[in-house]
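Consider the tokenized backbone below.
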């Protein structure tokens, strides 16, 4: 039986309510929504404070490669974990 994900807040551990029989989950749509949200969040700092954004970028050029790679790895792992938790909550 196909499922339909309803995006509304719930009480408890699940973030998404799943209803059976109303249609299929379109994973590409969810991925595109996530990318859109990422772009919105990434654009907030330069929009609100371009001066602070420039300082932050200048400070990042002074950091060596290893800490930057570790920060990138941590971000990827957290992203995969969030994606997986949302995905299993829909099943």
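A designed sequence for it:
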């Amino acid at each position: 039986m196909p499922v339909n994900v309803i995006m509304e807040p719930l009480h408890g551990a699940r973030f998404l309510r799943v209803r059976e029989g109303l249609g299929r989950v379109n994973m590409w749509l969810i991925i595109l929504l996530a990318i859109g949200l990422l772009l919105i969040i990434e654009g907030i700092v330069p929009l609100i404070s371009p001066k602070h954004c420039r300082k932050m970028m200048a400070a990042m050029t002074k950091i060596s490669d290893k800490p930057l790679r570790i920060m990138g790895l941590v971000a990827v792992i957290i992203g995969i974990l969030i994606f997986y938790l949302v995905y299993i909550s829909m099943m």
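Residues 3-90 form one domain.
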